[in-house]
Structures are given as structure tokens and as C-alpha cells.
Amino acid sequence: MTIPENQIISIDQAHVWHPYASFIEAPPVFVVASAQGSTLTLSDGSQLLDGMSSWWCTIHGYNHDTLNQAAKDQLDKMSHVMFGGLTHAPAAELAQLLVDITPASLNKVFFSDSGSVAVEVAMKMAIQFWHSQGQPQKSKLLSLRNGYHGDTFGAMSVCDPVTGMHHLFNDNLMQNLFADAPVSGYQTKWDDAYIANFQSLIEEHHQQLAAVILEPIVQGAGGMRIYPPEYLRQVRRLCDKHDVLLIADEIATGFGRTGKLFACEHAQIEPDILCLGKALTGGYMTMAATLCNDRISDGICRGEAGVFMHGPTFMGNPLAAATALASTRLLLNQDWQSNIQRIESLLSEGLAPCRQYAHVEDVRIIGAIGVVEMTSPVIMTEIQKAFMAEGVWIRPFGKLVYVMPPYVMTDEELTTLTSAMTTVLARPELLQG
């Protein structure tokens, strides 16, 4: 028996708490009945082209035959088994594949169940490593302004205190350090002044710093900012010079989103610890991974505890691992680089008219990411309606209207997506103030 749409919405409004939403004057929600390829079908039969890849994870689109079959095959064997003292083929094969495709020094894989937890794991790895080295004072982290790393408490402590959306909790969080945001622009001509603030902080505080954590090349939910690879190279150099670990949060940028398989490749650097999530399973299951090098794993395992002090219940979940394995192989077995270049070209061409609008601050594109920054925050409920009237699903935040489409989106669909953006964003009345 199918519950009627009005009953679903009634239950939802009474009981379901949505992300960053209120029960008082709650924003509207829309019931999705099914999804296929790049399209969401709502319960009333209307269809929306999904420009968000469901928060950046459904890189192969919805209801993909290969991923469906991988999940079904694994379900017939076992959906879950504890990872303490046991292992299984999907987790082992996935770990090997991730080791093979990530920077060469990263050869240890710790599975968890969300991106935020992958960041927590990375932070704990760094802190426990230094504790095992007899340097427990190295327990702080240095992050970047405009950075975003998740919603759990450790992750919140390394998000920008203002744009990271967690300022209400500042008094309850571990107090970390923040360097100025990197200079904007992938092609920005380098000046050593751009790294000066970061260099000053790491020089002054390196004896207390366990690690630097950053999103390589593209800062996500903290500002959708793109910065030059040289900044990342300079950070790696300074971390090496001052014996501070480097954590790369590639939860949003991994698996081809920026035009490289991993964004660190733009600068040809290797982090000590790498966080993966979102697109790992193609958006089918929640799963994440934190990779590290031998120095980290050996240091921790030779320390006081002798083990890494973390172990999620659903760690290495077979159903998620099998789907992740299928998703990653599906990506690697196609000419994904040419495909991302195609998407980048169409986003650049399609969003170019927005540069002429007086109420647009900036338009920036890298890989399969397109961002239009407005001069003022958008009126969320109104702009959402306008996009839906154009047949697309785009969910802006603040001043940022962006898309991260599924890689399977066709040229025609991408044109529809960007045309909707240029049409809707031409209307200054959809901005606050």
C-alpha cells in the first residue's frame, strides 16, 4: 500500500527533522517517488534534473544497472558482519583498489560510515601518532578560513568559525588555529605573500600542531572557493619543514570531481592522511575511508595503546564496500577525464552569461563543479520554486548557487541545467535586501 503524498508530507512536517531546517515555519519539502539517470521524479509525476548529485555523491546517476547488480549480489551473501576479528572480500578488494589509485605512500585504509567520521578518524590518527612519539603536546590542528569538514564535534572544530556554520558551538569545541583562506583563482599568478599568514602560524605553533587539515584545490560548503595548486605545494613544503602532518579532506573533491582523480594531483603532492567519502559508493550507501602512510600506522601501533583507538559498528560494511568497489571500477573503466572535460566546457559556456549580471559577484568552474556567487544571499524558498519551475533541482546556500552534476548528465541535460541557472539568476528580486 502506497502512502498518499499529502500524508507523507504531513508525517514529515510533524516528525522528520531535515538538515539545517526548522520545525517553525519549516521550508517546503518535495516527495521523490523514483530516480533514474540524472532525473528525479516527484510523487506528482513532475520531473527535475538533479544538478546536485544528491550532495555530490551520485556520480553515475540514479538506478544504475551495474551498481544495482553489485548491491543485489552482495545482499544475497550478507548485508553486514562485524569487522572486529573478521574480514570479507568486498572490504579487502576495495582497500586494495583505493591503495592502488591514491598517492603511492598511502597504503593503510580505515573504513568508517560517513565523511564527518572519516575526518574524526584522521584527526585522531594525527593526535594519537604524536602521543605515541612521546610528544602529546602536539594536539592542535591548523585549518583554513572558509574550510568545511563536517558536522561532528571534532570536524566542527576545524571548520571556519563563521562560514563553517558552527559558530554556536565555538565555546564547546577544541580550540584550533585558522590561517587566512587561500587566494582565489586556480590560475592566479603566485606571490609568496599568499602563503605568508599560513607560514607565520605554522612557524610559531608547530610544536603544538599535530596536523594541518584542508580541502585541496576546492573549498566546499565553506565557500565553494577554488585556489591555485601552488598554495597546496607550499603547505606541503612547510608541513615537511616543521614536522607537521598533512590531512587532505577529499570527501567532496575525490573520484574525478575536479578533473583529476584526486585534487591533490593538481599540485602533485601526497598527504600523510587522506579522507574519502561521498562519491565512494556512487551515492548508494553511506561509507567513508581514511588512508594513511606507514609512518602513521607504525607510529600508532608502536605507541602506548598499541592499536588505533577507533572502531565503528558498521565499519567495512560488506554491502557498502561491494557497491563502492563497483562504483570505483565503473569510473576507472571509462574515459572519465574526457567526460569531466566535457562537463567543464559546457558549464563554462552555459554559465558565462551570468558574468554580465550586476548582482553576480563571480562565476567559477573547475571540472564538474560550477559556481555562481551572488552579491547578496538568495531567498531560498523563492529561488527553489523558480528553479523547479524550470525543471531543475538546485539547492543554493547563502550567496552561492552551484551545481555538481552527475557525470552521466548528457550535453542536452547540461544545457537545460545551465539555461535554468542563467534564466533564474537574471532576477535580482530573488536576492535578499
From TrEMBL:
UniProt entry tagged with the keyword Manganese: no
Electron transport recorded as keyword: no
Residues binding pyridoxal 5'-phosphate: G115, S116, D249, P312, T313
Cell compartment(s), UniProt: Cytoplasm
Record-listed N6-(pyridoxal phosphate)lysine modification sites: K278
Primary location recorded for the protein, binned into one broad class: cytoplasm
One Gene Ontology CC term in the entry: cytoplasm
PROSITE patterns noted in UniProt: AA_TRANSFER_CLASS_3 (PS00600)
Keywords associated with the record: Aminotransferase, Biotin biosynthesis, Cytoplasm, Pyridoxal phosphate, S-adenosyl-L-methionine, Transferase
This protein's pathway: Cofactor biosynthesis; biotin biosynthesis; 7,8-diaminononanoate from 8-amino-7-oxononanoate (SAM route): step 1/1
EC number(s) per entry: 2.6.1.62
Reaction equations catalysed: (8S)-8-amino-7-oxononanoate + S-adenosyl-L-methionine = S-adenosyl-4-methylsulfanyl-2-oxobutanoate + (7R,8S)-7,8-diammoniononanoate
Gene Ontology BP, a term: biotin biosynthetic process
Region forming the signal peptide: none
Site (Participates in the substrate recognition with KAPA and in a stacking interaction with the adenine ring of SAM): Y20
Top-level division of the source organism's lineage: Bacteria
Entry function: Catalyzes the transfer of the alpha-amino group from S-adenosyl-L-methionine (SAM) to 7-keto-8-aminopelargonic acid (KAPA) to form 7,8-diaminopelargonic acid (DAPA). It is the only aminotransferase known to utilize SAM as an amino donor.
Family: Belongs to the class-III pyridoxal-phosphate-dependent aminotransferase family. BioA subfamily.
PANTHER family named among the record's database cross-references: ADENOSYLMETHIONINE-8-AMINO-7-OXONONANOATE AMINOTRANSFERASE
NCBIfam families (UniProt xref): bioA, PRK05964.1, PRK07986.1
Protein name as annotated: Adenosylmethionine-8-amino-7-oxononanoate aminotransferase
Source taxonomy: Bacteria, Pseudomonadati, Pseudomonadota, Gammaproteobacteria, Cellvibrionales
